[in-house]
């Protein structure tokens, strides 16, 4: 079966997507187009380059997750280090390590820029907070006077995964040297399952991969401004997980439980990683057992008739 895939953001929880993708591969699903936000952008980029779930999982096991935080000497200053980092750089940590790893993996497949992939194969979602606009790469590169050959996919991933307050924004200059500050795509669209939709009946389905949880969990004590900022963003991300899915969206979405694991939990135990992988795998297996493309097309046609799908 041919299908498109859209992965939402979710930090290290993205390992659950690898389990879900493995279940899809076992069902002979062939990815045509892929899109993602934040951690979902990493998975989408690697799949678009031709990696399989097992290869991605092997890479993930080899990653030192603590390095993803990109700590510098400033972060090691007791009590005020993180606050100083936010004040100086608008984010606590650097996000260069992730970009470097993704770049290396893509290079092994002979891919660096969006021009190295077929047209429309990959879309990465970020947020241009200078312009107040959703940024879909490579679709919106023309806004900056750039072409697909001008932008590395790893740079787009870095942008999409720049969680506010945790990571520094990516400062990007257009051809006219105008600065834009780019952050996590989840600010404006954490689950862009609509990204490949058209008014017509789809030739093949778009499957969404979405995290779910039962309640919002936050810190009871907020002793510093940094704790306040991070708690605000954690709460926002958890609210994304709890968001109601309308019928047309729910019908094509693999909903993956993540218990109390947050998007900003960088240093997960092996047990937690295995739980996430299995949660994704089992959720996708269960979804496929009930999936009915003809029913989905009927829902889409009805929504088109009512003007609900644009």
From TrEMBL:
A motif (GXGXXG) lies at residues 9-14. A motif (GXSXG) lies at residues 36-40. One of its GO terms (biological process) is lipid catabolic process. It comes from the Bacteria. GO terms for molecular function: hydrolase activity. Keywords: Hydrolase, Lipid degradation, Lipid metabolism. The active site is at 38 (nucleophile), 184 (proton acceptor). The keyword Lipid metabolism applies. It holds the Pfam family Patatin. Residues 5-197 form the PNPLA domain. InterPro entries: Acyl_Trfase/lysoPLipase, Lipid_Hydrolase, PNPLA_dom. A motif (DGA/G) lies at residues 184-186. PANTHER family: ANNEXIN (PTHR46394), PNPLA DOMAIN-CONTAINING PROTEIN (PTHR46394:SF1). This is Phospholipase. It comes from Salicibibacter halophilus.
